[in-house]
Amino acid sequence: MISLEKRPQPSRAWSLATPLVAVLATMVFGGLLFAMLGKPPVEAIRTIFWDPLFGEFAFYYRPQLLVKGAPLVLIAIGLSLGFKAGIWNIGAEGQYIIGAIVGASVGLAFYPYEAWYIFPLMVMGGALGGWAWAMIPAVLKVRFGTNEILVSLMLVYVAEQLLASASLRFLKNPEGFGFPGSRNLQDYPSAFNADLIAGSGMHWGVVAALIAVIFAYVLLNRHMLGFHIRLTGEAPRAARFAGVNPSRLILLCLGMSGALAGLAGLFEVSGPAGQISIDFNAGYGFTAIIVAFLGRLHPIGIMLAGGLMALTYIGGDIAQSNLGLPSAAIQVFQGMLLFFLLALDLLTNYRVTLRKSEVA
Amino acid sequence: MTVPLLSLQGLTKAYPGVVANDTVTFDIGEGEVHALLGENGAGKSTLVKMIYGLVKPDSGQMLLRGQPYAPPEPRAARADGIAMVFQHFSLFDALNVAENIALGMENPPPMKDLATRIREVSEAYGLPLDPYRTVGDLSAGERQRVEIIRCLLQDPKLLIMDEPTSVLTPQEVEILFQTLQKLRSEGTSILYISHKLEEIRTLCDHATILRLGKNVGECTPAETSARDMAELMVGSTLHTPERSGREFGSAAMDVSGLSVPSPSAFGTALKNVHLTVRKGEVLGIGGVAGNGQDELLSVLSGETVTEADAVKLNGEAIGQLGPVARRRLGVLAAPEERLGHAAAPDMSLTENAMLTGSVRQNLETNGFLNWGAAKEFAETVIKSFDVRTPGPENAARSLSGGNLQKFVIGREVLQDPDVLVVNQPTWGVDAAAAADIRQSLLDLAAKGAAVICISQDLDELMEISDSFAALNEGRLSAPRPAAGLTVDEIGLMLGGAHGMEVAHD
Fold first, then answer.
1. Any signal peptide, and if so, which residues (chain A) (predicted)?
2. Which of A76-80, A261-265, B136-140, B464-468 shows the lowest per-residue confidence on average (mean pLDDT)?
3. Residue B497: predicted pLDDT
4. Cβ–Cβ of B347/A230 closer than 8 Å?
5. Nearest CA to CA, how far is A86 from chain B (Å)?
6. For position B242, what pLDDT does the model report?
7. How far from B289 is each of A140, A220, A298, B50, B143, CA to CA, in Å?
8. Does the residue A33 lie in any domain?
9. B364 in contact with A at a CB cutoff of 8 Å?
C-alpha cells in the first residue's frame, strides 16, 4: 500500500527538484499526447523547447523570449508577494489593462509634444493605474471582508470593457480612418519604449522585471516586511502575535502586485504592442499566476519560470505553424506543467512510503 | 492465579532514530485501575496506540484473556471491548451531543433511541449530559463526558484514558473519579495515563512506570510516595522550584473594567476584568480551558487592542498599542498554542526567534533584518533552556512539544521583560523541564519583573503564584494571596459546580 507520511520539515532537495521533475514529466506526457494526435513527439518537444533558443531562426526568437518573459516575471513577482501571505490577487490581468490605459493616456495627453519626462510620467501613470485597480478589492476586503479572489477576478471583465471603450472612444486614433485603437506609441518617440539595444528585445520592461526580482529577493529575505509577508502566509495567528497588522498587509500586497501589473501593461502598450486596442491583453495576468507557482513563489524561481513559460509560448507557436499542432494541444501542454508542479509539490512536505499491507 | 484481562509481553516499537517502546511487559487485571506513568516522550502514547490498534508492534505480543490479541485497526480493538478517551477531543462544535456520538458509531441507531441510551448511560454513571445540547456550548469537562459516554455505549472491558483530568476543575475530577470507581466495581478495567501523581495515588490499584520506552518499575501507588514515583519517572532527583521571600514593588500592569466581545462564535467574551500585578509578583490565573484564557492573553499582549485606559503599564495607558509597541515597553507574552500562534511551524528556530525578538534584541535596523544576530539569539535560547534540537536552522514543528515550549518561554524570558504574560507555560512538558520553566519564571520575578501566569494546572499555580485569581466565563475573580488557599476554595473560585447541573428533560 502506498501511503503519505508528513516530513518533520520540508525537504529542501525536493523543493528545488520539483520544478525540474515537473518539466520532465510534462515532456513525457506531452510527448504521449502529441503522439496520440499523430504528430512526432520528439520533434514536437524539440520544437517547443529547443528551436526557440538554438534552432535555425533563434536570432528572431530569442528577443521574443525577453519580450514575452518580462511582463510575466514582472506580474508574477507582484503576485507572489501576496500569494506568500495568503492574499489571492487573481485579477492581475485587469490591473495590467488599466495600467496600460492610464499610462497610454498620460503619454497621448502630451501628443505630439516631445520631452524627456513624458515616458517617466507614463511609467508612473501605469503603476498608479494598476495600483488603484488593485485597491478596489483590497479596500473592499479590509472594510467589508469581501473575497479578494472574486472581486479582483470580476474586475478583469470590467477592465476589458474599459479597454474596449478606450479603443473605440476616448483613446481612439483621430487619424485612424475609423479603425478601433489608439495612436501607435511606437511612432511617438517621447512615449516609445524602444529596445535599449536595437533588436535585442531588451526594453525598459525587461529592466524593470530584473529590478523587481532583486527587490523582491531582498524584501523577502532581508526585510521585516517580507518576513511579515511570509509569516502571515505560514501562520496568520503567529503573525498577529508578532505584530503584523493584517489590513495593512492586504493593502500593501495587493497594492504592490497591482502596481507591478500596471507597469507591465504600460511597458507592453508603449513598446511591443504599441497601441491600445480591443484585444490588447493577451492573458499575461493569468499566465503569471502559473509562473508564480512554477517559480515556487521565489523571485529567482519566478525569473526562470517566466523564461520557461515564454519558451513554451514561442515554441508552441512554432509547433503550431510548423507541425500543425492544434492550439488546444499547446494549452493542454501548458496546463500539464502546472498540474505536475502542484502534484509533485506534495513531495516537499510528504514522503511516499511503500508499506507492506498489514494483515492481522 | 487468574488470567489477567490484558497481558503485554515484550512489546517493542522503534521509529527512525528512537525506540519508543523497548520490551515493555506488564499485566492489567480484571476490574483493575492501572496507571501508566511517565514523562513526555516516555512512550506512553505509543504503547496505548498499540493496544488500541493504531500502531503495530515490531515485536512482542499481547494476550487478551489469554488469547493472542493483535488488533489491525481501532475498529477491531473496539470490537474486542477496548475503548479509549483521547486527551484531545475529536468533537464537532456545531453538532449536538447525540450527533457527535452517532458519528463515531459503526451502525448508529435512530437518533431518538440513541438520545435515550445516552441519557440512561449518563445518569447511570453520574455524568449528566443532555444529548441535544450543541457541543460548542459545553465546558471542557462536559465535552470529556461526551467522549466517555461514547466509549461506555460500547460496553468496554478495558477503558483507556489519556490524561483525562488535565482540563477539569477539582470538583469535576471528583465526579470523574466516582464514575471510574463505579466502572471498576462493575468489573471494567481502566488503563489510566497521567503524570499527576496525587491523582494516581487516590485512584489507581497498580502503576507501571515508563522511562525512555522501558518499563522501569511497578508499584502500588497508595503505598508509594509521590516523590518516589516522580523520581522513578524522571530517573533522577527532582528539585522543586524555589521561591525566595520577595518584596513587591509598585503596580506594573493594571487592567481595569476591561470588556471585550468574543472574537468568534465559540470564543469567550471578557467581562469587566480587573487585575493588578506588582513588580516582583507572580499572579496565577486559574480556570478551565475555554473560559477566556486566550482572549485575556491577547488583550495583554496587544494582539487585541482595547481602549487605551483599560490596560496600563506603570500608570501609562497602553491599551491601544499593538504587540510591537508593547514589546518595546517591556510587555512580553507566550501564548498557549505553540504551533501556529507562539511559533510558525514551518519556519526555522532562527526565524521564530526573529518573530518576537526583533524589537528588544536589536535584530533589525530600519526594517532590515540581521539574521546573524537572530541565529545567535536562537542559539542562546536553545542553550540556556536546554532545547533539544540539532540546531537553530530546524523547523519549529520538528521539535517535540516540550522542547518547543522551552524555546517559546525561553525566547521571552531571555528578552528581560518587565511584564511577562504566559498561558499554560508547562503544557505537555516533562516534569524536569516544567520545573526549569517554573524556576525561570520565579527568577524573573525575583529580578523585579511582574509575571502573569495563566494555567489550568492548579499545582503549578500553587507552586509559583503569590496571588491567585480565577477566570470563569470571561469573568476574573478578585485576586487573593495564594498562600493558604485550599483546594476547595480554589475550586469554588474556578466556578465551583460549574457545568455540574443535572441534565434536564
1. none
2. B136-140
3. 37
4. yes
5. 15
6. 67
7. 36, 38, 41, 29, 11
8. no
9. yes
Task: Select the more confidently predicted residue: A80 or B482.
Answer: A80
pLDDT tens per residue across span A88-146: 999 999 999 999 999 999 999 998 899 999 999 999 999 999 999 999 999 999 999 99
The 10s digit of each residue's pLDDT in B157-182 is: 999 998 887 777 777 888 888 889 99
Q: Tens of pLDDT along B404-434?
A: 999 999 999 999 999 999 999 988 777 778 8
B106 sits in which H/E element: none
Q: What's the mean pLDDT in B318-341?
A: 93
Contacts of B375 (CB under 8 A, 6+ apart): B350, B353, B392
Calculate the alpha carbon distances from B266 to B132, B137, B263, B269 in Å: 17, 8, 8, 10
Cβ contact B367–A223 (<8 Å): yes
Contact A122, A266 (CB under 8 A): yes
- Domain residues for the domain of A175 are 38-325
CA distance B268 to A269: 55
Q: Cell 502596481 appears where?
A: A259
Cβ distance A23 to A337 under 8 Å?
A: yes
Full DSSP string of B245-279: -----SEEEEEEEEEE--SSTTS--EEEEEEEEET
Residue A95 belongs to a domain? yes
Please check the confidence at residue B498 and state whether its pLDDT lies above 50.
Answer: no
- The answer to whether the Cβ–Cβ distance between B368 and A223 falls below 8 Å is yes
pTM recorded for the entire structure = 0.78
A231 touching chain B per CB within 8 A:
yes
pLDDT at B245: 61
Interface contact A245, partner B, CB < 8 A:
yes
Q: B70 — contact with chain A (CB < 8 Å)?
A: yes
**Cβ-based neighbour number of residue B257 at 10 Å:** 10
Nearest to A316 by CA among A283, A272, A293: A283
The DSSP 8-state label assigned to residue B305 in this structure reads -
Domain count, chain A: 1
CB contact under 8 A, B323 and A240: yes
User: Do B344 and A8 count as a contact with CB atoms less than 8 A apart?
Assistant: no
Q: B161: closest CA among B189, B123, B122?
A: B189
Where do we find the cell 520631452?
Answer: A115
- Smallest Cβ–Cβ distance between A360 and the set B72, B340, B344 belongs to B72
For residues A61-67, give the mean pLDDT: 91
Q: Is residue A146 part of a domain?
A: yes
DSSP string, A64-114: HHHHHHHHHHHHHHHHHHHHHTT-----HHHHHHHHHHHHHHHHHHHTT--
Distance, in Å, from the CA atom of A155 to the CA atom of A135, rounded to the nearest integer, reads 11
Global ipTM: 0.83
C-alpha distance from residue A14 to each of A2, A9, A21, B162, B475 (Å): 19, 12, 9, 37, 50
Residue A251 belongs to a domain: yes
Residue B1 pLDDT: 52
What's the average model confidence in pLDDT over A67-79? 96
CATH of the domain at A244: 1.10.3470
